[in-house]
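Researcher: Quick test of sequence recovery. Tokens follow.
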């Protein structure tokens, strides 16, 4: 039985660009979404286009789409200092969440992009 989109676990994430700016977003599939951003695909957020290299700095799983959107709105209202504290684990999010190993996702996606670029030249 398929779950409704809003009932599946969602992810909130922070990406740092080459200008050292943080971008916040939400998704159902963090690996796919970070790949779309990092590969500068047509689905890349306008705020991140042309600002590579990108680094996935933080990722957390939340209960549903509603919680993810509320958290995204809250996160975008926070100061850079607060966001930096969240990234290093010294500040809490205002909703129940599960931290996700963002380093593994980042490494996996960057390797995939590198392999695709290498394949284009072979």
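Model:
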């Amino acid at each position: 039985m398929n779950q409704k989109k809003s009932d599946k676990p969602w992810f909130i994430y922070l990406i740092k660009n080459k200008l050292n700016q943080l971008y916040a977003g939400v998704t159902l599939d963090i690996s796919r979404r970070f790949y779309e951003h990092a590969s500068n695909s047509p689905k890349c957020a306008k705020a991140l286009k042309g600002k590579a290299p990108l680094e996935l700095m933080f990722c957390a799983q939340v209960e549903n789409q509603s919680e993810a959107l509320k958290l995204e709105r809250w996160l975008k209202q926070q100061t850079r200092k607060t966001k930096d504290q969240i990234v290093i684990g010294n500040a809490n999010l205002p909703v129940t969440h599960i931290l996700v190993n963002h380093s593994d996702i980042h490494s996996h996606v960057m390797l995939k992009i590198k392999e695709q670029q290498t394949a284009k030249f072979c």
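Residues 8-120 form a domain with the GIY-YIG endonuclease fold (CATH 3.40.1440).
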